[in-house]
């Protein structure tokens, strides 16, 4: 390729890789990809994409003063320059149809780029929707009055990419195109949802830190010529596969065949009388052949899960395992749970903040535990692995480790066990690998992308826009107390969801299956454990339909009373889901589409196995009743309708 310097009537040709065009005071680097062209202004880092003779704004000009750009260099595979005043280096390369921006710096600083704020040139396509991997996935119309208010109302304008998004990307749908922005790492990135007059836009921010040895900031961008709302997820999945960071369910089953028992299984946490053999008998009598059972234990619990209960659950072909957490340490003399007690850990295993003070634990209970403290034990993680072995001796075949997969990672300024967030992430991966290799069917909370290869299931990924939930759950009078001990209202009290709660979290017009597009054939996910399917009287049917559309199980809180009260639902839902999920579990979600203009009839497809069509409307659609789902099994040429 030639680099052309154009200015007025003078044209100079230099044999370099990417062309640079200069028109009076405007100049740009042109990069040709497979079916589109990117034009980058090195003065402002503005990026325009050109496809089919149309222009799309990909990144609007950086608002801060970058200073003069210098040292423009080209090679067959990349071009680069730097901003000496900003201490910022830019390197641009391409991979097929993807353009890759790599920024480096040797200075601690914040850098804001890219932004989808409306471009200055009138011929570029206008932004219409933001694609956001908040939990399962959101599609946000940029001029929607509801969202113009609610991002600010619920203090949700800043998303930490490392622990508030499940995957490190976002998307922008314009008049004709979809632009995908994929970060190489979630660490030190923030997605800001900002407002310009009556339009929302995205601003991504990265922090270069000395504590991370100024790790590079890499963003990969694709431009697609259709309004494909799954495009960012598809490109992200392809990137994972290309980097050999994607593990299928089939590969995981080769490590542990017990994973097969997750297919067709509802998920349930048991309390009080749910921990008795009578409860297992009741579940079995309802025809429930597949079930994941989780439990925790308090020192004052009347009913406890014992070896006999575990053995009976396993004979029924159920998966059963404890809730555990390695995130919190408390004084053994006053700890409110045995899960926060580790040999010799109090208080020296606490994370130390930059100000020298220990980091308070969840709800100010003790301290946050440093993964590096345990990683430096000899042998590594001794206290943690000893506990896992103790649980294993009870006969369990599953294990739920809270927090470790959520992307919640910390810096630790302790002199004895210092770490940065990247080291914390690696420590957690080591722990998850170990539990997986102990042949547990392993689960965790709201798994982010880097934890998925080591897990079989996760609770919480189906949830979206959780800020209204935190607000509601803190209202113990409305949501329910952690009392009585054997049947906490927090889990068993059924209430009406407020309208804002319903619209932000369970409105099918705003939800899209981003996570399932990437990972449906790699992990099984559910809603949050404290939002069982029975929690909201006015949302039960809609939540079931959303889950079935995405091919994921419902989650329950159960004891004997709950099993009896909801026996008809349990029997009906389980019978349908067992058949459906055993066919589509472990199969890639390949398509998602709206079948009606109002978007209330939606369809997914799982490979060549089945399509799922949900009618969220109050009218019949093509023989599908209102608020119902139709499964079409492709090979069998058979249809089945389910109405919750």
What features would you describe in this structure?
There is one protein chain. With 644 residues, the protein is an alpha+beta fold. It has 16 helices and 36 strands. It has a nine-stranded antiparallel β-sheet with strand order 8-9-10-11-21-18-17-14-15, covered by helices on one side. Strands 30-29-28-27-24-23-22-31 form an eight-stranded parallel β-sheet. The protein is globular, with a radius of gyration of 26 Å.
Which features would summarize this protein structure in a list?
644 residues; alpha+beta; nine-stranded antiparallel β-sheet; 16 helices; 22% helix; disordered N terminus
Biggest sheet overview: 9 strands, antiparallel
Rg on CA atoms, Å: 26 Å
Number of helices: 16
CA distance, first residue to last residue: 60 Å
Give the uncertain stretches in residue-range form.
1-16
Mean pLDDT over the residues: 94
Q: In one word, what is the shape?
A: globular
Query: Strand order, biggest sheet?
Result: 8-9-10-11-21-18-17-14-15
Strand percentage: 25-35%
Number of strands: 36
* SS class: alpha+beta
Proportion in helices: 10-25%
């Amino acid at each position: 390729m030639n680099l052309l310097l154009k200015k007025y009537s003078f044209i100079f040709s230099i044999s370099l890789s990417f062309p640079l065009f200069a028109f009076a005071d405007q100049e740009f680097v042109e990069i040709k990809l497979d079916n589109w062209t990117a034009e980058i202004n090195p003065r402002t880092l503005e990026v325009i994409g050109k496809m089919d003779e149309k222009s799309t704004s990909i990144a609007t000009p950086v608002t801060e003063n970058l200073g003069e750009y210098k040292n423009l260099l080209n090679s067959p595979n990349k071009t680069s320059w730097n901003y000496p005043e900003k201490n910022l280096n830019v390197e641009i390369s391409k991979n097929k149809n993807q353009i890759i921006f790599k920024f480096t710096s040797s200075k601690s600083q914040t850098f804001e780029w890219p932004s989808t704020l409306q471009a200055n040139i009138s011929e570029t396509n206008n932004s219409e929707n933001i694609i956001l991997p908040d939990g399962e996935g959101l599609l946000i119309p940029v001029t929607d009055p509801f969202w113009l208010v609610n991002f600010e109302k619920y203090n949700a304008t800043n998303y930490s990419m490392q622990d508030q998004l499940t995957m490190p990307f976002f998307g922008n749908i314009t008049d004709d195109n979809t632009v995908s922005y994929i970060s190489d790492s979630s660490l030190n990135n923030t997605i800001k949802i900002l407002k310009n007059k009556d339009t929302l836009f995205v601003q991504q921010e990265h922090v270069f830190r000395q504590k991370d040895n100024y790790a590079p900031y890499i963003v990969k961008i694709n431009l697609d010529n259709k309004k494909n709302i799954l495009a960012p997820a598809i490109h992200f999945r392809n990137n994972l596969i290309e980097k050999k960071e994607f593990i299928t369910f089939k590969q995981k089953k080769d490590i542990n065949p017990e994973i097969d028992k997750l297919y067709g299984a509802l998920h349930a946490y048991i309390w009080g009388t749910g921990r008795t053999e009578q409860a297992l008998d009741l579940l079995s009598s309802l025809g429930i052949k597949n079930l994941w059972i989780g439990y925790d234990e308090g020192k004052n619990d009347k009913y406890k899960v014992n070896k006999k209960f575990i053995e009976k659950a396993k004979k029924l072909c159920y998966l059963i395992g404890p809730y555990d957490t390695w995130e919190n340490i408390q004084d053994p003399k006053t700890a409110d749970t045995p899960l926060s007690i580790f040999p010799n850990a109090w208080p020296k295993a606490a994370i130390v903040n930059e100000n020298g003070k220990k980091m308070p634990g969840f709800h100010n209970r003790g301290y946050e535990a440093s993964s590096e403290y345990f990683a430096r034990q000899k042998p590594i993680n001794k206290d943690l692995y000893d506990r896992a072995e103790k649980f294993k001796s009870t006969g369990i075949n599953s294990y739920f480790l809270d927090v470790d997969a959520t992307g919640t990672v910390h810096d630790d300024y302790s002199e004895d066990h210092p770490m940065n967030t990247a080291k914390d992430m690696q420590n957690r991966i080591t722990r998850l690998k170990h539990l997986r290799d102990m042949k547990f069917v392993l689960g965790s909370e709201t798994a982010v992308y880097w934890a998925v290869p080591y897990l079989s299931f996760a609770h919480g990924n189906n949830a979206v826009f959780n800020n209204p939930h935190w607000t509601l759950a803190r209202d113990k009078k409305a949501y329910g107390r952690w009392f009585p001990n054997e049947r906490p209202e927090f889990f068993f009290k059924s209430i009406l969801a407020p309208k804002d709660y319903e619209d932000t979290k369970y409105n099918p017009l705003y939800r899209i299956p981003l996570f399932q597009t990437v990972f449906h054939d790699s992990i099984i996910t559910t809603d949050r454990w404290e939002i069982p399917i029975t929690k909201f009287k006015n949302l039960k049917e809609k939540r079931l339909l959303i889950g079935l559309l995405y091919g994921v199980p419902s989650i329950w809180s159960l004891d004997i009373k709950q099993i009896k009260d909801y026996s008809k639902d349990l029997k009906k839902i389980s019978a349908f889901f067992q058949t459906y999920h055993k066919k589509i579990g472990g199969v890639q979600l390949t398509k998602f589409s709206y079948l009606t203009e109002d978007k209330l009839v939606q369809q997914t497809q799982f490979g060549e196995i089945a399509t799922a069509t949900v009618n969220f409307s109050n009218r019949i659609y093509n023989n599908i009743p209102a608020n119902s789902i139709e499964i079409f099994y492709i090979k069998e040429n058979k249809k089945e309708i389910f109405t919750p």
